[in-house]
Amino acid sequence: MVFGIAAVCSATVRYVSTAGNDANNGASWGGAKKTLQAAINVSGVNDEIWVAQGTYTASAGVQVGYVNGSTHNGLQIYGGFAGNETSRDQRNPDPSATVLHGNRTDNSNGMPVLEFYNIGHIVIDGFTIENGLGRLFGGVPPYSYPSRLGGGIFMPGCWAITINNNIIRNNKATYAYLATYPFCSFGGGVCASYSGTNTERSYFTNNRVEQNTSNGGGGGVSWGVSNTEMSNNSFLANDASYTGSGISKAWAGGGGLYAGGTDVNIDCNTFQSNTASAGGESSAFGGALYRPALRTSIYRNEFIENSVSGTGTSGRGGAIYIVCGIVANNVFLRNSSSHEGGAIYFVSNAGTYTAMITSDTFQDNYSAINAGRSVSVCFDSTCTLKNNIFYYSQDDTSYRWEVYGAASPSGYSYNGARITVDHNCFYHPNTPPSLGQYCYASAPYPDYRNAIITDNGGEVFADPLLTGYRLSANSPCLSVGDPSEMLSLHNLGLLPISDCDYFGNFRFYETHDESGYHYQIDIGAHQYNSQDVP
What we know:
This protein is mainly beta and 534 residues long. It is built from 4 helices and 55 strands.
């Protein structure tokens, strides 16, 4: 873990309190500094800073905390202290008790609350980080395209990051001229990026990210650091929007999270009421999550009432826009898109990388143009849909396609989408029990450019009898799934994905007879017949 790197080294603790004085040496609670920046200035490699409860507000044109350079590698900043602790374990873990306030007055006056450049093994733990404004880059229009980055936390060139147990709220990365110029801003709450060679793991865990905004990627968080675990966070009511008119190069994506970099796991998070929208000729992707990079696992998350909207053919992926990866054991409820993919828009034109949606539960999602209430697969993409529940509780036959495969556009030589459907449950009231009633392969051409949907069998066309996200005792989805894909993931060592359902229950139900051991799996995100919790 990242914590262990600093723990084995000799660390000095610096203290900060609202009752302190920056003339103090910061070496004890009695001699505490008054500001976080003053404590940073006297800290070095692997030092810890303990910040007492209270509110610390930025002064005009100055961040609450700023670091630039390797002289602060391993810096660990913790909040929640009463001001008399001798051990970090004695502090109050509630992040609302220690507030770092950016003092933003409008969309053009303010700074990031915390700004860290080119350092590794940084820890930020136990704070409310609010009312910041992203760092401004670029000159004055019309001579360049300005952009703001990281309203709450801005971290370019940082690696082995740990951001844990924080509330990150009401920060902005927006720019007043953006309605006229096609450059996007990133990371209303957090913007982190790294392009170096260090491969140590980063962690973004147990944070509440809410009501942050950007004019581009990642209303809540824009994350461009590879090899990252993002888990147990809540992304709530964040917005990524671009309202410029007549601009074809601009885009907005990932109302909650824009996740770049490779090898990023996104698990056990809640994404609710996040939005991404675009106007004019710009585009919008992923109301909750925009994941354009390769190699990712999205599992055991909850996506509720996220939306994406745009003009024309824009607005793809009400909850997720993803390029390759595994989407497993998630729940998708009432997400919506103005174009394709009410819950997921899937692109997998990246060769041999895994492209799979398995053991998820989709309920009451919506595509305004009937191009996949739940899932839309882009042309020139291949995807397997296995052991999922696609359920719509209303009688609405005019918008019934749960799965949509796109044909290649006219004039292009790409293949249409290639979708394999295998052991899923499809159910709408009063819809005939036929795969053709729920899945649509766009086929306007007499050649390879058409989409193709292949049925591998095992489909269930009946009410899954859900209580919340859970299967009931007499559900037709019990023990009728195909465990082969999950067993393959298990054998590859991807145990958190393969072995646990959405609720953390053991995924497989094991039986045995004279012929040997057999594994059964339920359809959907819940394993009813779980024998234990690992």
